[in-house]
């Protein structure tokens, strides 16, 4: 299974939190990352986004269908994100558009198998692949990218 974690791009400050929109810079970040992602994404990818406006706007930059999933809202836990993705058993690749620190906690769990946090830059992606070898789940980090690197 492939799992891509995409942190929403830069957003306005303010409350209510779920209503924060992308800034002009954030729209450019999302577009730049979408331009990089689109030719690399599998055709059957399932895109899941937090209900927060900034995450939905980031997902919309792909120009693909996406599902809004409440389990990806700000403040959820790594287990909720992995369950929403169907990790590691989903039959299709999944792209999650969500938030820090939760996405960083998912990345730490996948990389090190323990609780902790990794910072994912705004608009950045971490692309993982899970595979079974000799009856064991192996996690491969396929790519890390941030909009300012592209």
Describe, in plain words, how this protein is organized in 3D:
This protein is of the alpha/beta class and 150 residues long. The protein has a single domain (2-149), classed as 3-Layer(aba) Sandwich (Rossmann fold), CATH 3.40.50. The protein contains 4 helices and 6 strands; from the N terminus they run βαβαβαβαββ. It has helices at residues 24-37, 53-60, 78-85, 102-112, and strands at residues 2-7, 46-49, 67-68, 94-98, 125-133, 136-145. A 6-stranded mixed beta sheet has the order 3-2-4-1-5-6. The two termini are 25 Å apart. The mean pLDDT is 96.
Summarize the structure.
The protein has 150 residues and is an alpha/beta fold. The chain has helices at residues 24-37, 53-60, 78-85, 102-112; strands at 2-7, 46-49, 67-68, 94-98, 125-133, 136-145.
What structural class is derived from the secondary structure elements?
alpha/beta
Supply the number of helical segments: 4
Main beta-sheet strand count, sense and barrel state:
6 strands, mixed
- Secondary-structure element order, N to C: EHEHEHEHEE
CATH superfamily: Phosphoglycerate mutase-like
CATH architecture: 3-Layer(aba) Sandwich
How do the strands of the widest beta sheet line up side by side? 3-2-4-1-5-6
How many DSSP E strands?
A: 6
Query: What oligomerization state is this entry in?
Result: single chain
Task: Provide the β-strand percentage band.
Answer: 15-25%
